Amino acid sequence: MTKADILMPAPMADAVIDALDARFVLHRLWEHDDRDAFLASVAPHIRGLAVSTLAGRIDAALFDALPALEIVANFGVGYDNIDAAAAAARGITVTNTPGVLDEEVADLTVGLLLATLRRIPQADRHVRERRWPTGPFPLSPTLRGRRIGLIGLGAIGKAVARRLEGFGVDIAYHGRTRQAVAYGYHASPVALAAACDVLIAIVPGGAATRHLVDAEVLAALGPDGVLVNVARGSVVDEAALVAALQDGTIGGAGLDVFEDEPHVPAALVAMPNVVLLPHIGSASQHTRAAMGQLVVDNLVGWFDGDGAVTPVR
Ligand code: NAP
Ligand code: 8YV
Q: How many whole angstroms separate alpha carbon 194 and alpha carbon 59?
């Protein structure tokens, strides 16, 4: 059987590389000093792309440079790194990794919420920096009595909500459509923020959700309010968030994602009421292995003629 040519622009997990190497002709773009020249030499043969956010934007210009491209397999459920409309217009299939990371990301989201409210990283630093003998760690805000608003009640949002039910807090949500669920629905982010004192963003990135959480939403959340963003940095107006934290418009934030990753604004790093994570929502060995396997399964399924396992849309 002829092996299809697959392009991997940036490194992925060893297990993914090994599995694709065994089944396809895998081209590791990042290993070449003159990437443009290498790409030009293999471009006519490339039928599949294996990408993560490390590969940068996968856009129309790249599709036009790869005339035989059939499928883009993304490592991640969010695929705002890919111009899916441009792919669809060219008949190129895009796949993502839904289903295998929902519980992991939900665990991390609840952990980040608790860490932010109860100031767990700050308390750890209090002990490590030998400040405990000189005085107790200050009392923290609480989850008790909180009203939690989820911006996005999809697969991950629902997994977060299920966990939060066990914490005895009120839960409401915003999305473009009302769902048949027991949680309260609000037709806009600002209405949700006004009704809650915790906002958790867990929607896809991209133009449609850019700055869904803006200065108005943060003002509606209020001075005891806490924002948790595990969606994409683009969903929150980061400058407005910094201002809201600095002037006390909201009380704190737990952030796993940022507008210009891996760069985090110095103003956020300096704040005592903010918990910052390096985009680790799905980043356990267990779940990253499952995501990698799904990338492989999508490419193998496609080139075996069985179809992609998890195409988007
Ligand atoms: P999903 O099942 O597709 O759910 C997305 C939810 O967002 C839906 O409930 C949808 O409801 C809502 N939504 C979509 N567009 C919207 C808009 N313009 N305005 C308001 N709500 C909108 O996706 P998921 O699997 O839960 O994942 C959600 C996102 O989480 C991913 O796309 C990714 O960006 C992010 N994520 C982050 C990490 C991390 O490591 N931090 C890990 C995994 C995923 P409606 O259709 O009714 O609007
Ligand atoms: C990944 C994610 O870390 O699935 C997603 O949408 O954000 C994370 O699980 C990321 O996609 C890695 O490229």
A: 38
